[in-house]
Amino acid sequence: MSSPPASPTPVRLADYRPSPWRIDRVALQFRLAPRGTTVTARLEISSAPGGEDLRLDGEGLRLLSLRLDGRALDLRPDDRGLTIPAADLPQGAFTLESVVEIDPADNTALEGLYMSKGMYCTQCEAEGFRKITFYPDRPDVMAPFDVTIESDLPVLLSNGNPAGQGRWTDPWPKPAYLFALVAGDLIAHSARFTTASGRGVDLNIWVRQCDEDHCAYAMDSLIRSMRWDEQVYGREYDLDVFNIVAVDDFNMGAMENKGLNIFNSRYVLASPETATDDDYARIEAIIAHEYFHNWTGNRITCRDWFQLCLKEGLTVYRDQQFSGDMRSHAVKRIEDVLMLRARQFREDAGPLAHPVRPESYVEINNFYTATVYEKGAEVIGMLRRLVGDDGYAKALDLYFARHDGEAATIEDWLAVFEEATGRDLAQFKRWYSEAGTPRVRVTEQYEAGHLTLHLEQINPPTPGQPRKSPKVIPIAVGLLSPEGREVLPTTVLELTGAQQAFSFDGLEARPVVSILRGFSAPVILERAVGAAERAFLLEHDTDPFNRWEAGRALAKDLLARMVTDGTDPGPDWMTAMEAVTFDDGLEPAFRALVLRLPSEDDMAQTLHAAGHVPDPAAIHTARRRMQAVLANGLAARLPDLLAALDDPGPYTPDAAAAGRRALRMAALSLLSRVDGGAAARATFTTADNMTVEVGALACLLEIGAGDEELTRFATRWGEDRLVMDKWFTLQILHAAPETVAERTEALTGHADFDMRNPNRFRAIFGALAANHAGFHHADGASYRLLADWLIRLDALNPQTAARMSTAFDSWSRMDVDRQDMIRGELTRIRATPGLSRDLGEMTERMLG
Ligand code: PHE
Ligand code: ZN
């Protein structure tokens, strides 16, 4: 028996050293075969003056030959790469040619070159290129690439511009993680784009034949993204073609490879019959996100992987701006904050908390997190508030002018803001280096026309960071008169100390304070506000985000009381909810968001933060009770609302129509609790689009009905893999807590369950983890089931297994029995022989 492997040594930001080697040009030649693909790589290398060995990364490659300036070298790689001793290297420039063999058909990790439904594709970010050939696989090594692909397949794609059948040349120097190759029997949905300066670009979305008629919305989104980046950021596209390929087996959402974006097919393919409004919105956002990377990520890339937020935070910020411009800024902001709290605040509050710019990692794939992405975007939003729109625009222009073609750092990023605006950002930089969600405690004093706000910030300890210093926190406030008139328009207070007071004079009466407008900083506000004041803000706040937030906070207060002492919400809440629900002056999407009660996970997080040990079963019961109270209170007027929202005519995916459907489905869900599902059943039967079809089905499943409809749904959609993912998810997500584990296990025996397909695995186990009361059921069956499947998946696809293991990251807020059970499962996973570095690091961090 071999001894267990020692814990791998972490990579540290502090150890960064520039590459001693430059790659001046790369020529790759692929001879494709499912087993035994050969890759010939000719690297033109400039040697370092230091006389160092040349180290190339390479994993799982069979080295067939290695030549330096034509002379054969007899060297054996180790299991992570190849070292060419300095003694073998000439002075100055030289050419290194390697030939390796790889087996894409056996690649279940979906990293490097792999096969998905008969097509070849690649995924290289972050460190997948080393599974294709020997190379200095680090983002600060940038080179122009020429690629030749030999295969019988008709469509052969790579980065850059076409240079003949199967030949591509990419003039823009790029790091290896942006390399891509696709070969398959594909068909293009095409369009043409003319850039602002008049250059023509061919746009193609490549899919399998059967999906050709599902590409129009993605293409429309791409064209709007390209135009928007020209108009808002002055960024033009820089190649003759832009290709997008949809693949079914993909670990993440999509990938921004230069000129050849590769997408998880669920973020490309859509038709009214098969995709929901949320799917459409996500397609628009992700198409934009990947396109925007062409400048923020590709033209300017990251020096090392610690700088990941440099491209991801900024690109998320840009795609959020874009979606807001395309749809509704208020609704988009509310949705983004819901997601931030659900994923990032949760991460920040548990054992996986890490700074926006981490300082060490074992496996970089584990750091594509809500903190790097979403908190990284929030940090940019704060920066913009602090320097103003003009300052932001100037800083970005300087950033593009100065760093184009470079691999940059967060220091470079902050420096352009300092230079463009003259502002010192030393304190601001703590947002990048310190983990954890700050709490901001607010108290107010009013006397004779004079209001004082006392603000205090508390920066809680996180793993490895016991003590923190105050941050600069932009707090947007507004004041309303008791009649609901705005007496102070939105003003940004800069909280820089641990405690600080801000005064407002000349007020006619005690104002109502609207604080943290637009969610101006990713913090938790602690403020004792009565129900009456929250209801007032829900009715009158001029800031739409805070208007929603007031309703949300009110619902949370009431739900917390229901959980802890069983008190039902009083009539004030009902009055306020009724007013919003039936106010035709408000956007339907906004009304739907107000009707959406806080999730069970959100409540558990909130109760925990308030010093309670949350009981998942009690939260579940209370939330259902609250829904029933709301349903009964609104019941009489719901049928009229539903009738008014039943749009005749064909489906359109625009935000206004989607908002009406969202409100309609929210109303239907409430009505289902009083009519036994009659209206939902009728809606399901007549639905002519997927939003309404799954919306109605979810209403039925929520009230314990819908089995017959589930069967009809499967019969209708059995051949459509993306729709069937929804079928798997829905029945787990809406199942009663005590039945969830059993149901999930049964579905893993379904003929269409394929653990090699990440979408399907996530459809099932993501739903299990998202059914809060079911996942945390006291019998521990769900914990066991998830652990079993993570262990199984890890052997095939470590990246997705590690990502899904975050379902366990909330263990420390649970009661002792559940803590013991979860820790037991994590310990069992950790002890698995041959466990991947990915899942190993995650269990290690979660166990603390
Ligand atoms: N860089 C991709 C994005 O954010 C995400 C990704 C990371 C995809 C790693 C695949 C692998 O757009
Ligand atoms: Zn990205």
Automatic annotation (TrEMBL):
Q: Which UniProt keywords apply?
A: Aminopeptidase, Hydrolase, Metal-binding, Metalloprotease, Protease, Zinc
Start and end residues of each Peptidase M1 alanyl aminopeptidase C-terminal domain: 532-847
Pfam families, from UniProt?
DUF3458, DUF3458_C, Peptidase_M1, Peptidase_M1_N
Question: What does this protein need as cofactor?
Answer: Zn(2+)
- Superkingdom, natural source: Bacteria
Q: Where is the signal peptide?
A: none
Q: Where is the Peptidase M1 membrane alanine aminopeptidase domain?
A: 217-431
Q: Which InterPro entries match?
A: Aminopeptidase_N-like_N, Aminopeptidase_N-like_N_sf, PepN_Ig-like_sf, Peptidase_M1, Peptidase_M1_dom, Peptidase_M1_pepN, Peptidase_M1_pepN_C, Peptidase_M1_pepN_C_sf
- EC number(s) on record? 3.4.11.2
Q: Give the first-level EC class, as a single word.
A: hydrolase
Molecular function via GO = alanyl aminopeptidase activity; metallopeptidase activity; zinc ion binding
Matches recorded under CDD domains: M1_APN
Query: Its catalytic activity?
Result: Release of an N-terminal amino acid, Xaa-|-Yaa- from a peptide, amide or arylamide. Xaa is preferably Ala, but may be most amino acids including Pro (slow action). When a terminal hydrophobic residue is followed by a prolyl residue, the two may be released as an intact Xaa-Pro dipeptide
What Gene3D superfamilies does its record include?
Answer: 2.60.40.1840, 3.30.2010.30, Neutral Protease Domain 2, Peptidase M1, alanyl aminopeptidase, C-terminal domain, tricorn interacting facor f3 domain
Cite the Peptidase M1 alanyl aminopeptidase Ig-like fold domain residue spans from the record: 436-527
Q: Where is each Aminopeptidase N-like N-terminal domain found? A: 108-162
Please name the GO terms of the biological process aspect recorded for this protein, alphabetically: proteolysis
Query: Member of which family?
Result: Belongs to the peptidase M1 family.
Name the record gives this protein: Aminopeptidase N
User: What species is this protein from?
Assistant: Szabonella alba
